[in-house]
Amino acid sequence: MRQRVRTAVPFVGSIIPILASVLVLGCGENAATGPGGEPATLVVTPDSAALHALGDSVRLAAALRDANGNEAGGATVVWASLDPAVATVSPSGWVRALENGTAEVMASAGGAADTVAVTVAQAAAVVTLNHEADTLAQGETLQLGAAVTDSNGVEITAPAVEWASTAPAVAAVDTAGLVTALRGGAAVVSATVDGVSAEAAFAVLDHLAFFSDRDGSDIWVMNVDGSGQTSVTNLPGSVAGHVWSPDGTRIAFYNEAGDADVYVMNADGSGLTNLTPPDDAGVDFLPVWSPDGTKIAFRSTRGGDVDIWVVNADGSGQPIDLTKNPGGGDEQPAWSPDGTKIAFHNASGDIWVVDADGGGQPTNLTNGLGGQDPAWSPDGTKLAFMSGRDNYDIWMMNADGSGPPTNLTNDPAHDVDPAWSPDGTKIAFTSQRGGGYDIWVMNADGTGQTNLTNAAGRDMEQVWSPDGTKLAFWTDRDGNYEVYIVNADGSGQTNLTKNPANDYDPVWRPRP
To answer: Cα-flanking dihedrals φ and ψ of residue 3, to 5°?
Structure first.
């Protein structure tokens, strides 16, 4: 720290002239000596000052003191700023901040003087974020700007802004305020200066993958508002069975060209890999990801029968036959949430389960009572399924096969394709109760059955959004197949694809 400079002077025997910028502290014959003629010292208080807004001011005071520290007689004080661009000082000792920096302010009386440092450093009082959008599509970027002012409303130039995101996996922000939308969801981005913050909330649109024959037979992706529709495959033959990896970075599907194989690719269509090369006459289709994203189960005839197989998702190793059923007919594999088991149905018309590592034998859970379309509850304790034992209804059973299954819908019309909500409290299904097919939803115990779509035509294959607030489905109500979404309460039915070609089989991209 700079040492203060004080100067004491002896008796000079004359009266100091009164200048234009003076402060009269007292009435004495000698302004530079004590009562006995001893040298006096000029002391300015406070001994330093800090101002945090341009235009702010502080009052300084000066006093003569004798060798014993007692206040001396009258004196005339002259004030001066050694850096008036930073701070000025008035004749009465008021210092006013003009610019960031440090100014030395000096008080003098005769030959005595004292100098103090006045620091001007603007501190943030208000932070305002400037942004042009509140909604972003995945992959989009947005440059944010932070306007920062001090307590007097004067802008702070080049402030040191700390940027942060509450959900960096959804919307990341770099040190310059550039926001990058990564996954569907919500994130709040904040800018902080001197402990003062401003926030901006962003919604990143979810993605849907779907099948379209508008330009061949390809997999397309789009934002959940229908924007950004883009084809991500360009292969001979028809592609189908598209499913997102659990982390949302890849898509698995099968291509019906040749003997049909299972492929995996990045979400943008790059990195295409054939997981089941055409080295035999088997047909490989309907891939399903393991919960950890390391393996893919699929249905195949490569062993001569229709069995459930599994292969590493990175293409290493060889596919393994899990069910080894001489009678074949094993369909619709569904991984348990913990990844240890795979449920399926087969030609016997029952729901079975097999260890996902290939150990042990498949176990029949329904034992002749019938079942199709097995769907695990999110906690892995229950299986919902469709059964035609009395009629096509949605049933529920314990995942370990204990206890009797329960008919949840019990309606004369066909109820099919059960789908659990992400929180496990509801089950959506397709019903023919109105003559056509509509999307219905009910509580997990079968109560509160409600028609969500209630429209002419066929509404089919509903899938829940990752946050459970919406469902996507396809319908022919417009004369061709279109992808729609609907809120979980039945409101807001919206056609997303709006294309004369056929668009169907929507699948939500998972959130992290």
So the answer is: -80, 140
Bridge partners (DSSP) listed for residue 352? 344, 364
**Residue matched to tokens 């700023």:** 81
Q: Which of 380, 422, 419 is closest to 185 using CA atoms?
A: 422
Output the tens digit of pLDDT for each of the chain's 512 residues: 444 555 544 333 332 332 333 333 333 333 455 545 556 789 999 999 999 999 999 999 998 887 777 877 667 899 999 999 999 999 999 999 999 999 999 999 878 999 999 999 999 999 999 988 899 998 899 999 999 999 999 999 999 999 999 999 999 999 999 999 998 999 999 999 999 999 999 999 999 999 999 888 899 999 999 999 999 998 888 888 999 999 999 999 998 876 789 999 999 999 999 998 866 667 898 999 999 999 999 999 887 889 999 999 998 988 999 998 877 789 899 999 999 999 999 888 899 999 999 888 899 999 888 889 999 999 999 999 999 877 899 999 999 989 899 999 999 999 999 999 999 999 999 999 988 899 999 999 999 999 999 998 899 999 999 999 999 999 999 999 999 999 999 999 999 999 999 999 999 999 87
| Helix or strand (DSSP H, E) at 65 | strand 61-65
Are residues 380 and 413 in contact, defined by beta-carbon separation less than 8 angstroms?
no
Of 494, 490, 414, the C-alpha closest to 452 is 490
In this structure, the chain runs to a length of 512
End-to-end, the C-alpha distance of the chain in Å comes to 52
How far apart, in Å, are the Cα atoms of 191 and each of 130, 268, 398, 447, 486?
A: 11, 32, 50, 47, 35
Nearest CA-CA partner of 78 in 23, 121, 144: 23
Give the predicted TM-score (pTM) of the model: 0.79
Cis amide bond preceding 46, omega within 30: yes
